[in-house]
Amino acid sequence: MPRPDRVLIVDDHAVVRRGIRAYLEALDEVEVVAEAGDGEEALEVLAAMAVHQELPDVVLLDLVMPRMDGVTATARITGQYPTVRVVVLTSFGEMERVHAALSSGAAGYLLKTAGPAEVAAAIGAATRDETFLDPTVARRLTREMVSPPTGLGALTGRERDVLILVGAGCSNREIAEELAISERTARTHVSNVLRKLQLTSRTQAALVAVREGLVRPCQ
Q: What are the extents of the domains in the chain?
């Protein structure tokens, strides 16, 4: 029999972790090896497992958690442990979160409405270096590719907030503090703004913000 895929579950709600563990443990192809309550604890667990060469194959994590959000945790995990794949399992399907997670290295994105078969499929795909997306998320990404919005209309609400702050001269750190996100996530949002507006610098983005009357001072 092939070795089951080893999974670390990361979610700040204990009852959610227990529920996920319960239906994953019913699957022969999956073995839950550990749990963590947030991104920081997940990194601590992974560090301890790495010492004994017992890293999981997949980290199944939520996006919205205290201390360290899922996007930051995904980037840290994939950066420090290249053999470990990350699959997002969250209640939030906004495209800005999807883009941020995938840009940080996530190999899958599922909503918590997913059934056990979908979660197992996402875990299996991740171990094969494939990407598995929730059907709703996949349809939205396809629509973006077929009919991409242009100009300011291409920006998500959060990216629009970031453009406003760039126009006000805020640094990535100031943007992170203003929006209560990590500096890495702020940097990702700035990159997405430049890409979507087809700009090459923060100065150009600031000029767009001024031109459109979006600028407000940093707090």
A: 5-143, 151-211
DSSP for 149-203?
--GGGGS-HHHHHHHHHHHTT--HHHHHHHHT--HHHHHHHHHHHHHHTT-SSHH
Question: CA separation (Å) from 127 to 46, 57, 81, 96?
Answer: 17, 6, 14, 25
pTM of the model: 0.69
Q: What is the pLDDT of residues 102-140, one digit of tens each?
A: 889 999 999 988 888 899 999 999 999 999 999 888 888
- If one looks up domain 151-211 in CATH, what number appears? 1.10.10.10
Written as six digits, the tokens of 122 are 């996402």
Indicate the class that CATH gives domain 5-143: alpha beta
Take residue 58 and report the two structure tokens written for it.
């997949």
Helical ranges in the chain per DSSP H: 14-24, 39-51, 70-80, 95-103, 116-127, 135-146, 157-167, 172-179, 183-196, 202-211
In angstroms, rounded to a whole number, what is the distance separating the alpha carbons of residues 50 and 57? 12
35, two tokens = 């749990």
